């Protein structure tokens, strides 16, 4: 579309930037650098990035409802991050029988549950032992009860790309090496999934599906790793509606943000690029902003714990 503009807004290259979340009240962008083990917060008005370094890979971080700090999926542990104190408090461990696993992408559901999935550790980008991961959710419980982690299913290659339909009745999910976007019936009251189906299968030229987000029209935007693009998909028809290319190949995830949620932020990675690749892609690992899409997103849900 004419009028679409792509610009790098965070020039500090991430090894593997992931999980962008717009913090509306603060006007900041939360994201992680998985392999650098950093939770990052970008301030658009000053152009500065704050970081908190954790003792383990960081799959994702999400805001907490009515509380300061974040819930974080770090290593194979759900925990809470006190940003001011730079302190991570473990809450629930998963995959105890698979010490080589780690958390990857995650997001909060409309009821405040924190969903995140695991995967085997990579020997190179997207090269790993298959079917080692699972999808989990962290439920804060009620009446002050302890938070509990629930496994929803196993045998995942690379757990990625989560979001919910506008009516909360469908959960969208990506297993990257299945090259598929899945949909489940979702019971928002109980947090249970059922009736998995394929919404979209990715073509070879679209590369590896990674993180995704929903727009206010109910369409999905998917970042394609090694494809240097985000694509818009209609989950009702299974049709690709739009492609926006970026100046880097390893696009990893996306979210809507900005004052009216009309800006699409896209994270990327530089891990796995050799010297020649880095010379070709000097902005690899940056965070990008896409404007002029003519569609808005919605505010993210926050963890209720």
Provide a quick synopsis of the model.
This protein has 305 residues and is an all-beta fold. Helices cover 2% and strands 52% of the residues. The N and C termini lie far apart (41 Å).
Structure, explained:
This protein is mainly beta. Helix content is 2%, strand content 52%. It contains 1 helix and 24 strands. It has one helix at residues 275-280; strands spanning 5-10, 17-23, 28-33, 38-43, 48-53, 58-63, 70-74, 77-82, 87-93, 101-108, 114-120, 133-139, 148-156, 159-164, 170-175, 180-187, 192-201, 208-214, 220-225, 229-234, 239-245, 251-257, 263-268, 287-291. The strands form 6 sheets. The protein has a 4-stranded antiparallel sheet with strand order 1-24-23-22, with no helix packed on it. A 4-stranded antiparallel sheet has the order 2-3-4-5, with no helix packed on it. A 4-stranded antiparallel sheet has the order 6-7-8-9, with no helix packed on it. The longest helix is centred in the last third of the chain and has 6 residues, at 275-280. It is globular. The model has no long low-confidence stretch (mean pLDDT 96).
């Amino acid at each position: 579309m004419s009028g679409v503009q792509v610009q790098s807004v965070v020039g500090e290259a991430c090894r593997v930037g992931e999980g962008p979340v717009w913090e509306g009240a603060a006007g900041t962008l939360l994201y992680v650098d998985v392999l650098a083990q950093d939770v990052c917060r970008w301030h658009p008005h000053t152009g500065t990035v704050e970081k908190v370094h954790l003792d383990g890979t960081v799959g994702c971080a999400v805001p907490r409802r009515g509380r300061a700090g974040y819930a974080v999926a770090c290593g194979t542990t759900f925990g809470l991050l006190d940003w001011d104190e730079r302190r991570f408090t473990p809450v629930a461990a998963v995959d105890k029988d698979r010490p080589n696993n780690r958390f990857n992408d995650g997001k909060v559901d409309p009821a405040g549950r924190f969903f995140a999935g695991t995967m085997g550790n990579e020997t190179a980008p997207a090269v790993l032992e298959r079917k080692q991961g699972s999808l989990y959710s962290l439920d804060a419980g009620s009446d002050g009860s302890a938070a509990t982690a629930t496994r929803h299913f196993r045998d995942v290659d690379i757990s990625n790309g989560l979001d919910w339909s506008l009516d909360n009745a469908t959960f969208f999910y990506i297993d990257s090496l299945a090259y598929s976007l899945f949909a489940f019936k979702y019971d928002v009251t109980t947090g249970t999934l059922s009736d998995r189906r394929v919404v979209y299968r990715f073509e070879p030229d679209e590369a590896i599906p990674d993180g995704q987000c929903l727009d206010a029209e109910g369409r999905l935007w998917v970042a394609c790793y090694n494809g240097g693009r985000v694509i818009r998909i209609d989950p009702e028809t299974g049709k690709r509606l739009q492609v926006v290319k970026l100046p880097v190949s390893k696009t990893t995830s996306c979210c809507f943000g900005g004052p009216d949620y009309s800006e699409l932020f896209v994270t990327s990675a530089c891990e796995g690029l050799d010297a020649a690749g880095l010379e070709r892609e000097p902005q690899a690992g940056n965070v990008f902003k896409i404007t002029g899409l003519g569609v808005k997103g919605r505010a993210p849900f926050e963890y209720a714990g």
